[in-house]
Write a structure and sequence with these properties.
Number of strands: 0
Largest sheet: none
Number of helices: 10
Order of helices and strands: HHHHHHHHHH
Shape: globular
Radius of gyration: 28 Å
């Protein structure tokens, strides 16, 4: 091989060896930049999407005369969470909402409480002493609100075919409730705001609050000195969502059953009960801590929530006792 050829190989071989580390560095920088963009996408997206909407002044608007305020509130709250705030509990992995947990638990807590009320409407309040036919709109809404809140347009645990999303089912439930209220205002549907119906509804709500207090108690058993508990915020916000929805529902039921509350002289007790639930629904710690209830350093936010929950439950039971007399 000629000397010129060897010199050429040495020169360009050395240049190639110099280029390889540079190419590797550029590739590493590109991957690092992509990773930073992905992290920013999720972090900024989560900050923009996340909203625990616990506005206790929220109320239905444009209610026709003769319609149920509680039913109108239920439909309006569903539409707010699906259309305005956006339903995030079923967000797929490529959306920032998939990494949230407080907002999804809060939203699912809301829908659970609304589903309990819709069931009461179809079984009790929307029928004449349980002897009449179940209202089709109420029956449909009660079924749709039982739909899991985590279903996207695919549910691979059951099928590879597209399916109805959670928000689609909830929007359909809202339409059925709105249709019922329209018929009710026109005198073509039944609504029975009697004392026995209010009593039965409050008993169901009280039983649900009792089940949530048991869940809080179980989570408090896992409390540590430093309050580190990865499930505490899930339990807190799922319970907060239910209490928030129950506060709004009971406030509007107080208007639907205004005559009963006045005749049984329940105005003071009713307002005290609402105040207790409102205080629980408005609790909003920056970080949910599950420290020992008697700890000196860190509080137990679950214990605080549980206190207001049990206080409201006791007040509901007192109201039920008065209605039984």
């Amino acid at each position: 091989m000629s000397r010129e050829r060897l010199d050429w190989d040495d020169e360009y071989g050395a240049r190639g060896r110099r280029l390889l580390p540079r190419t590797a560095r550029i590739g590493a920088l590109g991957l690092g930049g992509l990773a930073v963009l992905v992290v920013l996408y999720y972090l900024l997206g989560m900050a923009l999407v996340s909203k625990v909407d616990d506005d206790t002044a929220f109320a239905p608007s444009d209610m026709p005369a003769g319609a149920s305020r509680a039913v109108g509130l239920t439909a309006a709250l569903i539409r707010r969470e699906t259309d305005v705030n956006g339903w995030v509990a079923n967000d797929p992995f490529y959306l920032p909402g998939a990494l949230l947990d407080n907002m999804p638990n809060f939203q699912q807590g809301i829908v659970y409480a609304l589903s309990r009320f819709a069931l009461e409407m179809s079984d009790q309040l929307g029928r004449t002493r349980g002897s009449s036919e179940v209202d089709p709109d109420l029956d449909k809404a009660a079924g749709l609100l039982k739909y899991p809140g985590t279903i996207w347009i695919f549910d691979f645990s059951t099928s590879f075919a597209p399916t109805a999303s959670s928000e689609a089912q909830y929007r359909s439930a809202a339409r059925s409730l709105e249709d019922y209220n329209t018929r009710l205002a026109a005198g073509a549907a039944t609504y029975e705001p009697r004392a026995d119906n209010l009593q039965a509804t409050l008993i169901r709500f009280t039983a649900d609050l009792g089940s949530r207090s048991a869940i809080i108690d179980q989570q408090l058993a896992a409390a540590g000195t430093w309050g580190f508990d990865t499930r505490a915020d899930d339990v807190f916000y799922a319970t907060k969502g239910r209490l928030y929805a129950y506060f709004l529902l009971l406030r509007e039921l107080g208007l639907d059953f205004e005559n009963v509350i006045r005749d049984r002289e329940l105005a003071g007790a009713w307002q005290q009960m609402l105040d207790s639930i409102r205080q629980a629904a408005e609790l909003s710690p920056v970080i949910v801590v599950n420290g020992n209830p008697d700890g000196a350093l860190l509080p137990s936010h679950l214990a605080s929530l549980g206190f207001y929950l049990l206080r409201a439950r006791t007040q509901l039971r007192e109201i039920v006792n008065i209605l039984q007399k």
